[in-house]
Amino acid sequence: MSSSRRRHARSPPAAPLDDDDLLSEILLRLPPQPSSLPRASLVCKRWRGLVSDPGFFRRFRLRHRRNPPLLGFFDRYGAPFRPALKAPNRVPPERFSLQHDEDEMHSFSHGCRHGLVLISLLKRHQVLVWDPVTGDQHRIPFPPPFDTATALVNAAVLRDAGDVQHFQVVLAVAGTDAEYHTRALACMYSSKTGLWGNLVSTPIPYQANGYRIPTLVYTDDAVLDGDSLYWKLVGNLIGILEFDLKKQTLAVIQVPVDILEGNSLQVMRAEGGGLGLLFVSNSDYTARLWKRKTNRHGVASWELARSIDLGKLLSLEPEEKRPLMILGYAEQNNAVFLWTVIGVLMIQLESLKFKKLFKTMTFSHYHPFESVYSAGACIAGGHDRAELMLNV
């Protein structure tokens, strides 16, 4: 037997689980639940070394970017983070606690997306981008004219597909130039360049709907679908403001008055993709999901996609049929937070599965936090700390 053949005999191919690269690819496919990586880290020292590597965790977050679990939500009015999952996937509220400086107490939160939370620091004329998982914080000064705007500025945060390090922030506001003449303004910031882009604007048509209030960009969280962000417009015109992220243009989408039959209105992703609207009616306890479609001639229209009998779905007694209110919307899980007299409910709109979270008589607004979290610091600390994570 030749020496080359003897060397080959002494070096057989590595078994699949003896190859660290292949094992990492297998571990990347674990479910994106908070307990997945801590459980894997308990198997052996080698597995713990792989899943505790920061580069592996970045890849894990990136892989599950489109299907993150709904970990819980933040209350706009400063209440602590509320977890939505049960042990062993429950994230303790103190793990997602943001400490404000005294000058930052006057703030307004705009929502969460792609694992980031966006907050306006009104006294400082800044936006704060916070990653609760890593603890990273970025403070960005408002650009003109948002730094002197008298109307409430709304905003949204997002990351590019395939990028877990950089982010964009979009500001939007409606300003009245003269009586019954309003324009919407928007501007986008990129963390790659550290700069704000050009200011873009579009006129908002006046709609005689009986409201004397000028049209405003409402305080609801923006909804991302495809390459566009959407905000609800209220006041003289009930409609939707669209910001195209690729073209960096603004447009106003009108909502026909005859479908405004709900007491609570939420911009949402339509089932199967596209722009949708959710109306919740207190008169008949029905949720109606509308979808915007464009025909082959380029003409857009709204059509009713589905109606949900909430009284039947929730098995409500007649005395429990009190006013309903939408408190928040989780766009990646397609779930709505709804206040009812029996408690705050989270309803997944496709499966119609619902969960009662807690009971309260205080109305608030919730920012659902959809992200991949695995307590990476606990994993790196070894077996005992990972064990603690599994038992929270």
UniProtKB/TrEMBL annotation:
<protein>
    <recommendedName>
        <fullName>F-box domain-containing protein</fullName>
    </recommendedName>
</protein>
<feature type="domain" description="F-box">
    <location>
        <begin position="20"/>
        <end position="60"/>
    </location>
</feature>
<dbReference type="InterPro" id="IPR056594">
    <property type="entry name" value="AT5G49610-like_b-prop"/>
</dbReference>
<dbReference type="Pfam" id="PF12937">
    <property type="entry name" value="F-box-like"/>
</dbReference>
<dbReference type="InterPro" id="IPR001810">
    <property type="entry name" value="F-box_dom"/>
</dbReference>
<dbReference type="Pfam" id="PF23635">
    <property type="entry name" value="Beta-prop_AT5G49610-like"/>
</dbReference>
<dbReference type="InterPro" id="IPR036047">
    <property type="entry name" value="F-box-like_dom_sf"/>
</dbReference>
